[in-house]
Amino acid sequence: MKNEWRKSEKELYIPKTKPQLIDIPKFNYFAINGKGNPNSDYFIKYIEALYAASYSVRMSHKSGFSLSDFFEYTVYPLEGIWDISDDEKQKVNGVLNKDALIYTLMIRQPSFVTKEFASEAIERASKKKDNPLIRDLQFISLEDGQCVQMLHVGSFDNEPETFKIMEEFCSQNNLERSSMQHREIYLSDFRKTQTDKLKTNLRFKVRRVKS
Q1: Integer Cα distance of 168 and 207 in angstroms
Q2: Cβ atoms of 80 and 106 closer than 8 Å
Q3: What's the domain of life for this entry (predicted)?
Q4: Which end of the chain is more exposed for a tag (fewer CB within 10 A), N or C?
Q5: Number of CB atoms found within 10 A of residue 64's CB
């Protein structure tokens, strides 16, 4: 049976339009680091590199490269961990300078993918696709632990409104953010979807406030 994350892992990826506390276990990802304005053409190259390697894994069984425990699955969604440069953090004007953004873009990989198999998939993808960023991909493991997440509908520029609701939820439930970084999981393709219909899972790490 094909593993479809929208069905089998709905709680992890498709939250409601109200905050929820959730525990995120360790997962493996293809990842690439970047900085600057995400509206640039170069940003799309990062995304294309991630998908090239991810589909290299997904289609490996049709090319004679799959592992013995391979299973059919739907490729996981694009994710991003976002921060801003230290210099920009010193400013208090409240205006986001997108040129100062620092990010890690990622696509989760199935449990059967080993480090060696990931390297082989990256190599195959780099030979198939003319994108030098493919060779910059890393295979990493992340465990976020306790997080608050919420579905954001609409423009990325309106995310502060959703984060405010999430932070109010934290205050009401004896929680606080443990990092000012946040994660975005893109449930719709922002290259093809109208801005007001974009769906994004917003998430940040939290910890219990000591009483």
Answers
A1: 14
A2: yes
A3: Bacteria
A4: C
A5: 6
Which domains occur in the chain, in start order? 11-208 (3.20.80.10)
CA distances from residue 82 to 67, 145, 179, 209 in whole angstroms, order as listed: 33, 17, 11, 24
Give me the residues paired with residue 26 across strands.
Answer: 143
Would you call 150 exposed, middle or buried from its count of C-beta atoms within 10 A (0-12, 13-18, 19+)?
buried
CB of 21 closer than 8 Å to CB of 148: yes
DSSP string for 128-187: HS--GGGGG-EEEEEEEEEEEEEEEES-GGGHHHHHHHHHHHHHHTTEEES-S-EEEEES
3-state SS assignment for residue 63? coil
Residue-wise burial string across 122-138, b where 16 or more C-beta atoms lie within 10 A, e elsewhere? bebbbeebebebbeebe
**Rounded-to-integer distance, Cα 192 and Cα 209, Å:** 41
CA distances from 34 to 57, 69, 112, 157 (A): 23, 33, 27, 19
For the segment 111-165, what is each residue's pLDDT rounded down to a tens digit? Answer: 999 999 999 999 999 999 999 999 999 999 999 999 999 999 999 999 999 999 9
Helical segments of the chain, H only: 5-8, 10-13, 41-58, 86-89, 115-128, 159-172
Closest CA relative to residue 104, chosen from 140, 55, 135:
140
